[in-house]
Amino acid sequence: MRTLLLTFFALTLSTPFALARDAKPLRVGMDVPYAPFGVRGPDGVLTGFEVDLGNAMCQEVTGQDCEWVVQAWDGIIPGLLARKYDLIISSMTITAERRNAVLFSEPYYATPSAFFTRASSEFDLSNTSNTRIGVQRGTNQERYVAEILPDAEVVRYTTTDDMYLDLIGERLDAVMLDAPVGIQWAEDDTKVVQSGDFIKEPARIFGEGVGVAMRKRDRKLAEQVNAALDKLKNNGVYDELMAKYFSFDIKL
């Protein structure tokens, strides 16, 4: 009996985050819709690249899928700091400004940005005076358009759905957002086209890649998240999910 008890306690101590926290699932904040990273299906279930990757990561840390909490982008860091969830997995670029507020995992992908417009539009990126460009509030793209294209009128949105509707409805000349999201729009609607090349610079705006965000005090959790992501990259799961959702390379 003593041997069995000692074995049980040894296993308990060696098991990661799960048993140490009574196997509670990790609560993860995400802004949706943001296809192909995260979108809610007709049945209410979240799907997408970051949903699948996040669930695989949570399985490694706790033995359970993530408990997803939908949160609008402009309140996503305040929600983390207010303990509404434990992590943010929502295409959040690692920047110096955000590092002041949160702790990041190692980056797990780097996505370019791009402009998208209507196929019938005469939008010209070399002359943006008197143009209306939509961006999601609080994003790198908002900062880019405001700083790099000062002649344009910046129209800020809470959700990408509203941006899309105003673009199609000809209330915007163009939008700027993460390229995979716009590419998904273009695949679903032939009225949407990419305008110009991918944009990845300057680094002061577009940061160091996308990471999982946590509260600064949660350093042990950050170690576990990094270990889980590293394992998923080494065992092939990460590459399988990349191939499932993307036709071009967004790996670091």
UniProtKB/TrEMBL annotation:
Compartment list: Cell envelope
Highest taxon of source: Bacteria
Protein name listed in UniProt: Transporter substrate-binding domain-containing protein
SUPFAM superfamilies referenced in this protein's UniProt entry, alphabetically: Periplasmic binding protein-like II
Sequence similarity: Belongs to the bacterial solute-binding protein 3 family.
Lineage: Bacteria, Pseudomonadati, Pseudomonadota, Gammaproteobacteria, Pseudomonadales
Solute-binding protein family 3/N-terminal domain mapped to chain residues: 25-249
Organism from which the protein derives: Marinobacter suaedae
Pfam family, one: SBP_bac_3
Main location: other
Annotated signal peptide: 1-20
Keyword entries, A-Z: Signal
